[in-house]
Design goal:
The chain is mostly helical. The chain has one domain: Tetracycline Repressor, domain 2 (Orthogonal Bundle), CATH 1.10.357. It is built from 9 helices and no strands. It is elongated. This is TetR/AcrR family transcriptional regulator. Keywords: DNA-binding. InterPro entries: Homeodomain-like_sf, HTH-type_Tx_Regulator, HTH_TetR, TetR_C_Firmicutes.
Amino acid sequence: MPGIEKDDRRVKKTKKALRNGLAELMVHKGLRNITVRELTDKVDIHRATFYAHYKDIYDLYEQMEEEVVTELNDLIMLNYSQPPVHFYKIIFEYIMENKQICHMLFGTNGEGSFVTRLNDLLEEKCMETWCKEWQHSEISEELKFKVRYHVQGCLAIISKWVESNFTYPMNQVIEIIAEIDRNMEYFVMKKQKMDAAFK
């Protein structure tokens, strides 16, 4: 119905304004230092409208984080088997399409849970993929250490790129991470061959 569609568009527009406003504020200050009044004044929305959608600032932040984690999880699950350059291109394009929110979530003023959750998603998929590719029957402690080193290194590069306000060319950052991927695979395969030769 036309009236319902108009209301839906209005709600989406309001939520988008609040989310973008919070992302902008968090470039300069931590979440705990931002008030509902400060946010609603910034985006010119009545406080009652804010409370119609969110309990408080933390609820807004958590919903934003949950949405991005869910969308990135879907992209990771669908594309992790792609060659590194293609996989990271998909992830980086998502970040560019959601610049403000990703700047907030990856930034130093974020609450910290986002990068941890993303790390866990990537570690799980990385271990699953490496076990299959290198025919590991079980996940060893050694593999866990290698995966942790690899994933956290990649995320550190992405975080640095985001925190620098995307100034370094995206394709060059993708190539850096893809090269790290290739080197890591070479190292693991070489070690496996050496281990097999000594058995």
